[in-house]
Specification:
Layout: E1 16-17, E2 35-40, E3 46-47, H1 48-58, E4 61-66, H2 70-79, E5 88-93, H3 97-102, E6 106-107, E7 131-143, H4 144-149, H5 158-161, E8 170-173, H6 179-192, H7 197-206, E9 210-212, H8 215-222, H9 227-232, E10 238-242, H10 245-251, E11 262-279, H11 285-295, H12 298-303, H13 305-308, E12 311-312, H14 321-326, H15 338-357
Parallel strand pairs: 2-4, 2-5, 8-9, 8-10
Antiparallel strand pairs: 1-3, 5-11, 6-11, 7-10, 7-11, 7-12
Length: about 350
Amino acid sequence: MSITKKVTVLAVGLGLVTLSACGSSDSGGSGDPKTVTLVSHDSWAVSKNVLADFEKRSGYKVKVLKDGDAGQAVNKAILTRDNPQGDVFFGVDNTLLSRALDNDLFQSYEAKGSDQVLPEYRVDQDKHRVTPIDTGDICVNYDKAYFSEHKLTPPTSFDDLIKPEYKNLLVTENASTSSPGLGFLLGTAARYGGDGWQDYWKKLKANGVKVVDGWEQAYNEEFSGSSTGKKTGGDRPLVVSYASSPPAEVIYADPKPTTAPTGVATGTCFRQVEYAGLLSSASNAKGGKALLDFLLTKEFQQDMPLNMFVYPVREGAQVPAEFTKYGPQAKDPQTMDPAEIAENRDQWVKSWTSLVLK
């Protein structure tokens, strides 16, 4: 999800545990029964005191291995299924869930607190192979300063993005390697249907959309509205990111602006849900189960918004005021039934690749 979430580069030095992945090329976990290894995409982050509290109470030391964008991380986890890098995988979302389940990536475990998960986010209720952890909305973000300076109204919908006035302004992620990129593709399929999305992408390509590998490059390098994009000379004022990206630009700014420098095209949103699961060949299954329980505690769920810029899925978990002020959830996002995603995703991605990248 998680988000916008994915502005973790902005969080360095702010008391977040964002990096402990120096051994991401290792396999088979740590081999230490008192160490539990979490495999994740690059956007994993948790407050040091929250993680320390879990380690003190459980007796487990948490090791984190990061494997790039969510799409890359899921693919690698599947390839190493029989000799996994860790015990728990976090970050498979609804766009890729069926791929993980079809490849038997996870073993069954019903985490404590699962009954507190909001009903709309529950899946796989018969086998409990995954646990919902967070949710967010993949949406086009825009650079307010650019549109003000050019006296141009920001786009608000998918239809707007193919208009001539927005030519060469949008950067998105590769749908075959990036979860937000795939989410954006699925959003267009939900909006225009299985027979109409390709025609839409032909128009988007003709209108100069730029495609890069992952979110970090798109948001932190190409997007002119992000704090890092300004420094790197990003020249695209539209980017596929998250509805919760604007609050990150406020929270981590120094000095803090009174309004977010970026906005959200609310008619371009696709609802994302992220899950975690106990890897099928986990060497420390007991520790993995304890870690999954922890991810559903109110302590962790309320810690997520300002760390990974996602919304909690647990009933009653509070979201910070800054978060809801600058990054409210989309009121009417595009959604798609998991069965429809499973049936069409791979062919759609193949078609998208041929259409957009070649």
